[in-house]
Amino acid sequence: MGGCLATDRITVDGCKVGYMYRDKPINIDDSAWRFFAGDEDEDYMADSDNHGVYAVNTIVNYDRDIIGFLNEPIGSEYERDDYTGKFKKAITH
């Protein structure tokens, strides 16, 4: 499926994906998916040591709940519902 961006909150700290969106790809190998635990702030994201590029399959191995969403179109945005633990469309402001 290609590469994606994911934060260390997922790949190092072991958090589940809490927020994900599909952006416009930056190159042919980019799936355009961006995965976050959901609690990363601007300062955290400003430090490039806190996130990296991974194969989407690698992130699936951390959190299989994302599988059903991977073919969603560019512009898709989902967040994990705190109550049910399932993904729902994110409401952006």
Report on this model:
It is built from three helices and six strands, in the order E-H-E-E-H-E-H-E-E. It has one domain (3-89). The chain is globular and about 35 Å long. The mean pLDDT is 96. It has 93 residues and is α+β, with helices and mostly antiparallel strands. The chain has a six-stranded mixed β-sheet with strand order 4-1-3-2-5-6.
Strand order of the largest sheet: 4-1-3-2-5-6
Number of domains: 1
Terminal residue distance? 29 Å
Task: Provide the succession of SSEs.
Answer: EHEEHEHEE
Low-confidence stretches: none
Helix and strand content put the structural class at alpha+beta
**Mean of residue pLDDT values:** 96
Largest sheet: 6 strands, mixed
Strand proportion = 25-35%
The backbone outline, from C-alpha atoms, is: globular
The count of β-strands is 6
Radius of gyration: 12 Å
What descriptors fit this protein?
single chain, 93 residues, alpha+beta, six-stranded mixed β-sheet, 17% helix, DUF2185 domain-containing protein, Imm33_dom
